[in-house]
Amino acid sequence: MQLLELTLDNPYENIALDEALLETAEQNGSASEILRLWYPAEPLVVMGRSSSISAEVNLEYCQQKQIPVIRRCSGGASIVAGQGCLMYAVLLSYKKRPQLRMLEQAHQFVMSTIQSAIGSLGVSAEFQGTCDLTVNNLKFSGNALRCKKDWFIYHGTLLYGMNLELISDCLGIPGRQPAYRAGRSHAEFVGQVPVSVKDLSLALIKTWGAGEPMVDWPRELTTSLVAEKYSRKQWNHKVG
């Protein structure tokens, strides 16, 4: 598996790059599996592909604070990221792992791998809901995936030191909630994994076996996706 540890200059590029990696692998047919890690320096809201911006996002607050609101290519609900949040993505091959065409097995495989990485640091994480990770019943990782014919990308958040008040400020309460949330507010529901980002990153790299640095990432397609999609209000503000 290749490692792409790369944070681009603006949030639109960072969200677009995940889709560019998936599309490039699908088109080329012979790409290596990839672990990508990136580290947002400023707050951003990332909506799911079918999220309703009016229902899930406090758009007035985000605009007032100049927090970008960007719709990703995968499903799931809206999340808040920023400094103190490690963003990861794994690009995986269905030809290599045909059993992961079943969504339940895909969730189980990726979540159990990340659990193992965190467990190697002495922290016991639980897999709850569809694709959440928790410590002491507090969610520190939300995840989503996007599937193509031969490849899929699975990506998400790992909170280790973020200002959690941003979540209540930027997001509404989601209409669909996992049973284990039990009606809790964001402040009561979200927590952090008690490890350093350096240790967390190294544990992920080791557990995924991402030993080969990726040099030739899809720059042109990323730029094109930003211009044609991710920077455009027609995509980001569409009705979910």
Taken as a percent bin, the fraction of beta residues is 15-25%
Total individual domains: 1
User: Which sheet architecture does the biggest sheet show?
Assistant: 8 strands, mixed
The helix-and-strand class reads: alpha/beta
- The N- to C-terminal Cα distance equals 34 Å
CATH topology: the name is: BirA Bifunctional Protein, domain 2
Gross morphology is globular
Mean pLDDT, rounded to whole units? 94
Which strands sit side by side, in order, in the main sheet? 7-8-9-10-6-2-1-11
CATH architecture: 2-Layer Sandwich
> Which bin fits the share of residues in helices?
25-40%
Task: Count all strands and give the number.
Answer: 11
Rg on CA atoms, Å: 17 Å
- Specify the CATH class: Alpha Beta
Order of helices and strands: EHEEHHEEEHEEEEHHHEHH
CATH superfamily grouping: Bira Bifunctional Protein, Domain 2
Question: What descriptive keywords fit this protein?
Answer:
BirA Bifunctional Protein, domain 2, alpha/beta, single chain, 35% helix, 240 residues, 23% strand, 3-stranded mixed β-sheet
Structural description of this entry:
- The protein is an alpha/beta fold and 240 residues long.
- The protein has one domain (2-227): BirA Bifunctional Protein, domain 2 (2-Layer Sandwich), CATH 3.30.930.
- It contains nine helices and eleven strands.
- It has helices at 11-28, 53-56, 59-64, 103-119, 165-170, 186-189, 197-208, 219-230, 233-236, and strands spanning 2-5, 34-38, 44-47, 69-71, 79-81, 85-93, 126-128, 132-135, 138-147, 151-159, 212-213.
- The strands form two sheets. It has an eight-stranded mixed β-sheet, sandwiched between helices.
- β8 and β9 form a beta hairpin.
- α1 (11-28) crosses α8 (219-230) and α4 crosses α7 (197-208).
- It is globular.
- It starts with a strand and ends with a helix.
- 41% of the residues are buried.
- The mean pLDDT is 94.
